[in-house]
């Protein structure tokens, strides 16, 4: 019997890409449930066949009962089939826990709610989300929010062979990515919410001091940390703790997007050329490769360093020239940002991404990165501050200061984004139309004057006509100007919005570690830990504090440089814009006869 499915969301087919347009509520027949890359082949009632995203449909059971209590989409079915009963049970428990701490769209909501109280549940230290695994997306109705929001917590790559790597990740991987270019519509919001539990699953930490999963406890209470091969030194400079910057820096040029195909031409993708400036040797990467790099950096460094997300994936319109240009621009900004970070840029995973020489070397490096145990809070075990240990009071004060500043800056950035978006809409809509109306009205007036038959007003009528044309030219200048100045200011703000969206979880990790140290006296008194264990905890929290301060010094130096550059550019372009308008008005004025 043929498998039927109900379409949950509208999907518009990309012309020439063997896709099938379907509408919400439509019933289709599935002829191939998995052709790879998150796509299936379906047939509608008209007999038309084509590719449809698996996340967009739900299987209709033949017996009228739900196949799975938590949903029965094709993607869910495949996912659940791949899990053991024990893993599914643990993940379900974790998803429930994550929903409690991660509900709501504002990444600062948890920080704000617990500012005056404990950061963690009274049931135990394991209740607080920690590190990179807790970084998540913010959904706000902004033009630019489709590019720099922070996605749901990454749960690690699927276990499997390298065939998984050949799947088309440019298709739908997680429904939280699907937003249109203007804002997340109601359907998009529904898609994101309906799959939040599966895309945000985390296995919770057991209560301290017993634990099974890597967490703050494992780092703080390890009897002896293994000496890692990689070392991240922290020195004290003129402005406090700082990362050690490499003697030579480099950037990476993202260029030459080219369309490729797979699955015998059924699926297409865009491949970009990356050229590091320090080697001038190019490598090619698809968007899914950037996505893999982002996920590895988030998992490895996300507890200590904010990793802003990539521009979102897109199902429809992803091969249009304007979209490709915008994505390449944002990938360029993201890569430049990573190259500027002294820790990220020197990391093995980042260097391997830029410098692999063949497929074998790429896959070897990929496997090694995915098996890296020095990830999450364990990244702090690689850090070596060249400074004396800090006391707990100073550590807590530093953490509070970072939280206060980043929250305030987040509010300021969002306000500027809101104002900028309103100004953009005004400059590309009502304002040019007003100038056009003035221009047409002046030209109409000149036409009326010309009909008078009076011989002595030709010069005046010509001047009024030219003045009207000048205002029409000004209308075009006004409409085009945001692309020359406001665009760059908004893009910079969205980059920083992405950074700032990471800090609540980073601060949460630090707050959780501080609370653990505060409670260590009780554990010493009840002989659950030794005095030496407590001293180790204080030392390790001190290392975490030095890392936070080093990262903030890097953040501040970049912030000062970036905002100085982008606001200078904005003002320079504004000056040039108004000077151009003034010159046009002067030329129009010069045509009027002097009486």
Structural write-up:
With 595 residues, the chain is an alpha+beta fold. Among the domains are: 4-60, SH3 Domains (SH3 type barrels), CATH 2.30.30; 233-387, Phox-like domain (PX Domain); 395-590, Arfaptin homology (AH) domain/BAR domain (Substrate Binding Domain Of Dnak, Chain:A, Domain 2, Up-down Bundle). The protein contains 18 helices and 11 strands. It has helices at residues 74-81, 85-102, 109-113, 145-148, 186-194, 196-199, 216-221, 287-301, 321-339, 348-355, 359-370, 392-428, 430-450, 458-480, 486-500, 503-518, 520-525, 531-590; strands at 3-7, 27-36, 39-43, 49-53, 57-60, 232-237, 240-243, 252-262, 267-276, 283-286, 383-385. The strands form 3 sheets. A 5-stranded antiparallel β-sheet has the order 4-3-2-1-5, with no helix packed on it. The chain has a 3-stranded mixed β-sheet with strand order 7-6-11. A 3-stranded antiparallel β-sheet has the order 8-9-10. Strand 6 and strand 7 (240-243) form a beta hairpin. The relative contact order is 0.11. Mean pLDDT is 76; it is low at 64-105 and 110-214. InterPro entries: AH/BAR_dom_sf, PX_dom, PX_dom_sf, SH3-like_dom_sf, SH3_domain, SNX9_BAR, Snx9_fam, SNX9_PX. Residues 250-361 form the PX domain. A 1,2-diacyl-sn-glycero-3-phospho-(1D-myo-inositol-4,5-bisphosphate) binds at residues 286, 288, 327.
Strand residue content: 5-15%
**Unreliable stretches covering 5 or more consecutive residues:** 64-105, 110-214
Helix amount: 40-55%
**CATH class placement of the domain at 395-590:** Mainly Alpha
What is the SS-derived class? alpha+beta
Strand order of the largest sheet: 4-3-2-1-5
**CATH architecture descriptor name of the domain at 395-590:** Up-down Bundle
Largest sheet: 5 strands, antiparallel
Radius of gyration: 28 Å
- Output the CATH homologous superfamily of the domain at 395-590: Arfaptin homology (AH) domain/BAR domain
Number of β-strand runs: 11
What is the CATH topology of the domain at 395-590? Substrate Binding Domain Of Dnak, Chain:A, Domain 2
Number of helices: 18
Q: What does the average pLDDT come to?
A: 76
Give the CA-based shape: extended
Q: Sketch the topology as an H/E string, one letter per element.
A: EEEEEHHHHHHHEEEEEHHHHEHHHHHHH
Task: Give the end-to-end Cα distance, rounded to a whole number of Å.
Answer: 91 Å
């Amino acid at each position: 019997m043929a498998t039927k499915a109900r379409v949950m969301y509208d999907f518009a087919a990309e012309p020439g890409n063997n896709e099938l347009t379907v509408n919400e509520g439509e019933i289709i027949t599935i002829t191939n449930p998995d052709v790879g890359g998150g796509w299936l082949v379906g047939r509608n009632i008209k007999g038309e066949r084509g590719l449809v995203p698996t996340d967009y449909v739900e299987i209709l059971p033949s017996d009228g009962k739900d196949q799975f209590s938590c949903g029965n989409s094709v993607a869910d079915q495949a996912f659940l089939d791949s899990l053991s009963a024990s893993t599914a049970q643990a993940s379900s428990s974790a998803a429930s826990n994550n929903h409690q701490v991660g509900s709501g769209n504002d990444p600062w909501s948890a920080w704000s709610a617990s500012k005056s109280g404990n950061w963690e549940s009274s049931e135990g230290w394991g209740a607080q989300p920690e590190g990179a695994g807790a970084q998540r997306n913010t959904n706000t109705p902004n033009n630019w929010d489709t590019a720099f929001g922070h996605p749901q917590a990454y749960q690690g790559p699927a276990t499997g062979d390298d065939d998984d790597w050949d799947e088309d990740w440019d298709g739908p991987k997680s429904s939280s990515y699907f937003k249109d270019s203007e804002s997340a519509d109601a359907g998009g919001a529904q898609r994101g919410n309906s799959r939040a539990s599966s895309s945000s699953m985390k296995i919770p930490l057991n209560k301290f001091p017993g634990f099974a999963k890597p967490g703050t406890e494992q780092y703080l209470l390890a009897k002896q940390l293994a000496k890692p091969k990689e070392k991240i030194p922290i020195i004290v400079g003129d402005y406090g703790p700082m990362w050690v910057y490499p003697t030579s820096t480099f950037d990476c040029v993202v260029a030459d997007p080219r369309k490729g195909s797979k699955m015998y031409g059924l699926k297409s993708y865009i491949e970009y050329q990356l050229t590091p400036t320090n080697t001038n040797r190019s490598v090619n990467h698809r968007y899914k490769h950037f996505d893999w790099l982002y996920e590895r950096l988030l998992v490895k460094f996300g507890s200590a360093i904010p990793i802003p997300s990539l521009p979102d994936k897109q199902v429809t319109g992803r091969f249009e020239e304007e979209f490709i240009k915008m994505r390449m621009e944002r990938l360029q900004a993201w890569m430049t940002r990573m190259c500027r970070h002294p820790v990220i840029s020197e990391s093995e995973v980042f260097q391997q991404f830029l410098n692999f020489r063949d497929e074998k070397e790429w896959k070897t490096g990929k496997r090694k990165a995915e098996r890296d145990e020095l990830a999450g809070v364990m990244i702090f075990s690689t850090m070596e501050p060249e400074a004396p240990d800090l006391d707990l009071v100073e550590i807590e004060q530093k953490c509070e200061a970072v939280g206060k500043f980043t929250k305030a800056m987040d509010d300021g950035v969002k306000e500027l984004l809101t104002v900028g978006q309103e100004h953009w809409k005004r400059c590309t809509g009502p304002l040019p139309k007003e100038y056009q109306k003035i221009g047409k009205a002046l030209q109409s007036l000149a036409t009326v004057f010309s009909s008078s038959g009076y011989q002595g007003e030709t010069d005046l009528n010509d001047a009024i006509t030219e003045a009207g044309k000048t205002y029409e030219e000004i209308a075009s200048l006004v409409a085009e100007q945001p692309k020359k100045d406001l665009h760059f200011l908004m893009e910079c703000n969205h980059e920083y919005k992405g950074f700032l969206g990471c800090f609540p979880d980073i601060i949460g990790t630090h707050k959780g570690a501080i609370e653990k140290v505060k409670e260590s006296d009780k554990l010493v008194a009840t002989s659950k830990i030794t005095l030496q264990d407590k001293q180790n905890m204080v030392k390790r929290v001190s290392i975490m504090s030095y890392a936070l301060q080093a990262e903030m010094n890097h953040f501040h130096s970049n912030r000062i440089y970036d905002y100085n550059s982008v606001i200078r550019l904005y003002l320079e372009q504004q000056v040039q814009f108004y000077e151009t308008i003034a010159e046009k008005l002067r030329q129009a004025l010069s045509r009027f006869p002097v009486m």
